[in-house]
Structures
1.
Amino acid sequence: MDRLAPLIETLNADGRLRVWSLVISVFGDLVQHRGGAMDTARLQRILGRIGVEPGAVRTALSRLSRDGWVTGDRNGRISTYRLTPEGVGSFAQATQQIYAAPRAGPVTEWWFETGTEAAGLPFSGGVLRPAGDTLDPGVSFRLAGRITEITEEVRAGFLSDSHRASLDRLAQDLEALGPGLTDPHDAAAARMLLIHRWRRIVLRFPDIPAELMPADSPLAHPRAAVAAGYRALLPLAEAWLDTEEDGMAAMPPSDGAEQTRFVPRA
């Protein structure tokens, strides 16, 4: 049985496949810590593992080049691509959200805020978020305190139908991965798919702390589940990036950045 088949199925269930977005996920997660460039043979190999045709990869690269996301270089028969400085900047803005560490303990103190730039879970005309998170200069009002009572009805209001559906597919992917993945190529493709789905969730929906997550949520601790899945895939996926075969050059050594993802800062 193809261990990646369930992940590929949920990817296609999302609707029309945006190959260019997958390419961005590859560059952001598998390339930046390895010198920043990937040859087209390796890019086609990892996307081909999930059923993307070479022609679709070329079309995606052409679009990303035209839009200023990537730039290409040719050395003989080998073509390589890297993110442009603008592309690196755009992805870097999202990196902190994507790879932030799971919370180390329960949230006991909360902020209720209002203001033009207040960021958090929409609630009663303002936003609710754990106290001590990054301060927003646009906040006009802040109330700090503890939550002493919260009903399931209130919890359910934090999780929209589209957010729930996305978490459900994420839970399916994580369950399908499970233990026992042994092929480095499969691990690299699985890691790409995991981060691609997670990237779309964290950049689209607000983070819901476990204390506010509905009891019937597909995942009680989504970030912790993703972090665990990512760490399990990391060694084998990195081993695939070190391989050289069939005209596919090994990638430069890692700068170690992948080891700090989902890890609390010292």
2.
Amino acid sequence: MSAQARNASAGLAIDNVSFAYGEGEIILRRVTLEVPEGRFLTLLGPSGSGKSTLLRLIAGLETPGDGRLAWKGVNIAGPGIDRAVVFQNYSLFPWLSVQDNVALAVAKAHPGLARGARREKARAYLGRVGLADAAGKYPFQLSGGMQQRAAIARALALEAPVLLMDEPFGALDPINRGKLQDLLLEVWQSTSPRRTIVFVTHDVDEALYLGDRVAVLGASPGRLLAEVAVPFARPRRRAELFASEAFHLLREDIAERLDADVLTGLAAA
């Protein structure tokens, strides 16, 4: 197989990427990662490790100072319909109903579809996240958890092969956060072909519960400390997983890597 063919089949490629805002502080330094198609990568690190910046680079919302990002061998040079993004702040249009918010994404994925068909398809995506009965409501009429489910439905409606998620559950209470984690896994595992997901978090438990692999980023500047394979079979049962010795050992290993990086940074300051 040629190098070009290998790159095209690799899914998402992040090759020696660095980033700084103008002449200011370096945000990311020489990050290299590969995410095969259909896999779930969690980006884990403290504030200042460049997690969200890396996600924005993958989305094409920022341009790297050095290095290359590509999807299936094609360089990422800007936003594209092949990459959907879910932010922490929901980003729903407040003047549109939930159904019409999702219908906008359907229109991008299927520009020739009639309005009625778009709205029907939007309602079907809302049904996948348990919001079919709230289709006619406006974002302000929904709880935070419901708004985030609507944002996930809109991202799914783009039918993009890559789903980028920037701490989407970070503002939610633990119960709703757990429910949406389970919902995300259920939707991801039941979709064929599976989407490639890159999920930003600063929570070690969340990173291990969701991901196939965890990319651990250190801060100041953001750089890759480790890639950790998550060995737990799917589907995962939260109570059993969190009670297992293997989970706690892996959790402690990652936490120790992060703590060591913080101490090294403090010593050098």
